[in-house]
Amino acid sequence: MTPQAASAEARRIAALAPIIPVLVVEDAAHARKLAEALVAGGLPALEVTLRTPAALDVIREMAQVPGGVVGAGTLLTPEDVHAAKAAGASFGVSPGATDRLLDACEAADLPLLPGAATASEAMALLERGYDMLKFFPAEASGGAPALKAIGAPIPQIAFCPTGGVSLANATAYLSLPNVVCAGGSWVAPADAVTAGDWTRIETLAREAAALPR
Asked: What is the pLDDT of residues 133-180, one digit of tens each?
């Protein structure tokens, strides 16, 4: 998969809804119901971070939910890429980008949303052929004003800001012309997941899906 094709597919997935839930799931037993609640609420693209021992099993379960598009987040190594693809991930997300990681995703035909926090990082990825990126860590890197400033000289790059994005500030990001969607974890609070409160999660998803962009 070429970087151009990867970015085109990543952009298509990012455009499915205003918010991509960023999910840290400890127990694969919660995976299917969680995915079903989020999809029912209007958030079909799901990022399962590889931060727990259960993450690959969670991806396997969620990949079977009709209407969902499941990706693997926190891809750091080629081994992560291969494991995520084997588990059924349809796309990948990384906090940054290295040549080894990009090579692995391209070889595995796994569309990647690579992370960038500066103009130089964004330019390096654009030079390779990526024009749909993750802006991370969004709030710590200056928030919406910083992303707006980066977009002025590099308008051909689109972003999914993630990291500190909440219901309170999501609109500030989504209103920017260089933002397709944003990534957020607030739609799946840990206490709601643990309690199996899928109604609450679906309600939060509906609220997020209705955000203007």
From this structure: 999 999 999 999 999 999 999 999 999 999 999 999 999 999 999 999
Q: What integer pLDDT is reported at residue 42 of this predicted model? A: 98
106 included as an active-site residue: no
Selected catalytic residue, list 9, 36, 47, 202: 47
Annotated active-site residue in 36, 85, 106, 134? 134
Beta bridge partners, 151, equal: none
| Predicted TM-score (pTM) above 0.85 | yes
In single-letter form, the type of residue at position 170 comes to A
Buried (b) or exposed (e) across 128-160, using 16+ Cβ within 10 A? Answer: bebbbbbbbbbbebbbbebbbebbeeeeebbbb
- Chain-centroid distance of CA 40 in Å reads 18
Phi and psi at residue 45, to the nearest 5°: -90, 120
Say if CB 18 and CB 48 are below 8 A apart: no
- Average pLDDT (197-205) is 98
Cis peptide before 137 (omega within 30 of 0): yes
Residue 33 catalytic?
Answer: no
User: What span, in angstroms and rounded, lies between the C-alpha atoms of 23 and 184?
Assistant: 8
Give the mean model confidence (pLDDT) for residues 2-30: 98
